[in-house]
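Hi C.,

You asked whether I'd gotten around to modeling the 156-residue construct. I have! Everything is below, sequence then structure, no commentary in between.
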Amino acid sequence: MEKPGIPGLFVYMGLRTAKDWNQFLLRFFVALGIWEVASVSLRTLLFSTFYFDPNLKNFFVPMSQVLWIGPIVADILEVFFIGILASLVRPALPYGLLGGLLTGICFSIAAFVAPALAISQFTGAFPVKLIWLWVFYQSVLSILASFVFTFTSEED
């Protein structure tokens, strides 16, 4: 008779043993590392033109006044919940990169595209081009993190 594992969500995620937790945390830290490296490059590439635009001068906070713990915690939370989603749907996904692509696209549509549509249609608070650039930026990072979480090796 098999002993029950940790009750609740973690059992459904397949995190019953220390080996399962080690594998999940390893993937989490690899995904977070890739996320942070890619995000700095993409952020610089995509948003620098808006940062120096005179029309949006009062829209952005100066770099010296950004409290960096906020974006870092947001990245950690987002990568962690992509990991939870990928762990929960892994049995129903195709293996490898296709599963990561499907997970990343589904997460991006639910988390970024739908709110961006609502914000751009119902309010005029943000420039529309900036909203969709942010959606693209977050979607690329979500797909990269999903690739890491859905990658399977022969040890699995």
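If it helps when you're writing up: The first helix runs from residue 9 to 12.

Thanks,
B.
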